[in-house]
Amino acid sequence: MAILSQTRPEPEFSRPFAVDRLGSTSVTETLQAGPAERAALALRFGIVDLEQLSATLNLERILGGLIRVVGRLEADVVQNCVITLIDFPTHIEDSFTVDFAGTEMPIGPGAEITVDVDYDPPEPVEGGVIDMGELVAQYLSLALDPYPRSPGAAIDPVWADSDAAERSPFAILKNLKTPN
């Protein structure tokens, strides 16, 4: 019987921040990915190239013992157009806010639980460290267009017009069907 490993792969862009460094005043960190990190992230995200990745993050303690991270990232990526299959550059700018909690709040027996569907629970702080590089990488992945189109790329009008359904393979098969 094989035992599966419980270890996570090492992040390509890791910038650990020990939360005990954070006092009552906020801390601002600036991150810049190096060439090897950018190449590994490009491979991870399935993009042609990640030419530049930088971010500025502000960390502060807020009420309830939470740590709030407000970040802004900028990246220059090269993606492959889903229509023309030609590589093209894109500039990405994105901002995000994430709350972290050191421990889960215990719920006692008989406690009333209120569920708010709009509430985004805080992320856990693991081992007293927040990996700011991995946080930036995750938000970069969310900012990437999953179906990138180069400027000016358009779908062939044959497939884009309203009566394209009549020319679909299924419509053709339907027309070939002979009545009984």
Give an overview in words.
By secondary structure, the protein is α+β, with helices and mostly antiparallel strands. The protein has one domain (16-105, 113-153). The protein is built from 4 helices and 7 strands. The chain has helices spanning 35-45, 132-143, 157-160, 169-176; strands at residues 16-18, 27-32, 49-62, 66-80, 87-101, 123-124, 129-131. The chain has a 5-stranded mixed sheet, covered by helices on one side. A hairpin with a 6-residue loop joins strand 4 and strand 5. The termini are far apart.
Low-confidence stretches: none
Outline: elongated
- In terms of DSSP E residues, the strand content is 25-35%
The strand count comes to 7
Secondary-structure element sequence?
A: EEHEEEEEHHH
Rg on CA atoms, Å: 24 Å
Mean pLDDT: 84
Question: Which structural class best describes the helix and strand composition?
Answer: alpha+beta
Instruction: Enumerate the strands of the largest sheet in spatial order, edge to edge or round the barrel.
Output: 2-3-4-5-6
Measured as a percent range, the helix fraction is 10-25%
Q: State the major sheet.
A: 5 strands, mixed
N-end to C-end Cα span: 58 Å
Work out the oligomeric state of the chains in this entry: single chain
Count, helices: 4
- The total domain count is 1
Keywords:
single chain, 180 residues, alpha+beta, 19% helix, 32% strand, elongated
Quick structural gist:
The protein has 180 residues and is of the alpha+beta class. The protein is 19% helix and 32% strand.
Draw up the topology in text.
Layout (H helix, E strand, L loop, with lengths): L15 E3 L8 E6 L2 H11 L3 E14 L3 E15 L6 E15 L21 E2 L4 E3 H12 L13 H4 L8 H8 L4
Parallel strand pairs: 5-6
Antiparallel strand pairs: 1-7, 2-3, 3-4, 4-5
